[in-house]
Predict the structure.
Amino acid sequence: MELTVELTRDAAAKLGKEKTYGHFINGEWVEGETGNTIALENPATRKVLAHIQSGNASDVARAVEAAATARATTLALPD
């Protein structure tokens, strides 16, 4: 692949976009129940780096249930 001005601009645009990250539950990235996000800022510059999902009690319950299921599955494996 040849490095061109267009490719460089495209790469810079992708790097400059703020991403939104969800919760990693049961092996996959999922949104929080409310869909609300929290801005993740660089404390030195106050620049927003990304957004993260804001979790609630239902999200925690979903994660705990997935973890309990995974634990039970792991314990059932032969030694």
About this structure: Residues 6 and 12 are 10 Å apart (CA to CA). The chain has two helices and five strands. The mean pLDDT is 88.
